[in-house]
């Protein structure tokens, strides 16, 4: 079972540079959430704050009643046992084979026997499709395999929260699709809380239950996938649909001249909301919502063609 993460009034600066201020959101237990934002908006800093590697100047991060932004180091150590983290490049030890890399947290943080360690490691490597590669060194495998090995290592302590930093970085579209499917399948199996930082818009439109957008030193919006994909808020609409018309420019914000030049331009129509990725088993995840449910509940008419599949017509349109 995943656990809820409740963030309230979080503010982080480095010297005089404010990264973001007053970030408030609740990441629902057991669901898959994605955090987006233009480069340099502090998405990775946000992940590091959630696990207590970086301390905010203000605000709280409540996990099972403990505020990890202010708790003693001993309590933080215990709370961190709830987490698994997949870093951008997998963060493998280059001199260790994949088996020993994946086994490292078990040997470091538990007193399990080597036979128990082997059973757990092979179970997790099977989950990510790496059985047979356990004797390879990280330098002998592809970037996609290193990501999967990093994911297996993040899973060995059976975390209730998985933090995943730009899993698509350096991957081609096909391998990005494979790792997206893997996340959905894992969520269906282990029911952990997933928070994924990504720049990949296609992944954002099809994978998560919830989406957040950091922009201009604040959280622009966080909520169910359909809420953001149907949003008319200019920043959200522009970023999630990869459009040039809107307030975001090459240097995060457009200047006054750029905004004046496009003031009479209409934003392109919202594209259809795609169907959410489903588990390979065909059995819906426990927290997965039916297509169009949020739109119906909130009286929102989705863009034409939303929720269409090859075998069915539009649902909720």
Automatic annotation (TrEMBL):
Keyword Transcription (UniProt): no
Polar residues bias locations: 307-317
Keywords assigned by UniProt, alphabetized: ATP-binding, Nucleotide-binding, Transport
MF GO annotations: ATP binding; ATP hydrolysis activity
Keyword Transport in record: yes
Domain ABC transporter residue range list: 5-241
Residue ranges, annotated region (Disordered): 266-317
One Pfam family hit: ABC_tran
Name used for this protein in its record: ABC transporter ATP-binding protein
Native source species: Nocardioides piscis
């Amino acid at each position: 079972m995943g656990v809820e993460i409740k963030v309230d009034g979080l503010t982080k600066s480095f010297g005089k540079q404010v990264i973001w201020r007053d970030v408030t959101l609740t990441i629902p237990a057991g669901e898959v959430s994605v955090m987006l934002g233009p480069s340099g908006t502090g998405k990775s800093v946000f992940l590091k704050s959630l696990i207590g590697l970086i301390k905010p100047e203000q605000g709280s991060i409540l996990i099972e009643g403990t505020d990890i932004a202010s708790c003693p180091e001993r309590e933080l150590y215990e709370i961190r046992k709830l987490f698994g983290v997949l870093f951008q490049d997998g963060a493998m030890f280059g001199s260790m084979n994949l088996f020993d890399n994946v086994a490292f947290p078990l040997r470091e943080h538990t007193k399990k026997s080597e036979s128990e360690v082997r059973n757990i490691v092979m179970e997790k490597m099977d989950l990510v499709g790496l059985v047979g590669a356990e004797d390879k060194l990280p330098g002998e495998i592809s970037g996609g395999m290193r990501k999967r090995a990093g994911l297996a290592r993040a899973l060995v302590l059976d975390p209730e929260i998985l933090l995943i930093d730009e899993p698509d970085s350096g991957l081609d579209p096909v391998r990005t699709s494979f790792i997206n499917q893997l996340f959905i399948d894992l969520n269906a199996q282990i029911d952990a809380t997933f928070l994924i930082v990504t720049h990949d818009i296609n992944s954002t439109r099809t994978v998560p239950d919830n989406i957040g957008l950091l922009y201009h030193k604040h959280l622009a919006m966080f909520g169910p996938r359909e809420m953001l994909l149907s949003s008319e808020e200019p920043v959200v609409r522009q970023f999630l649909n990869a459009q040039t018309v809107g307030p975001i420019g090459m240097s995060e914000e457009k200047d006054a001249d750029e905004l004046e030049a496009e003031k009479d331009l209409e934003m392109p129509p919202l594209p259809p909301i795609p169907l959410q990725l489903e588990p390979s088993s065909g059995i819906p995840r426990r927290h997965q919502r039916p297509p169009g449910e949020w739109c119906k509940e909130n009286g929102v008419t989705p863009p034409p063609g939303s929720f269409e599949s090859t075998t069915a017509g539009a649902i909720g349109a």
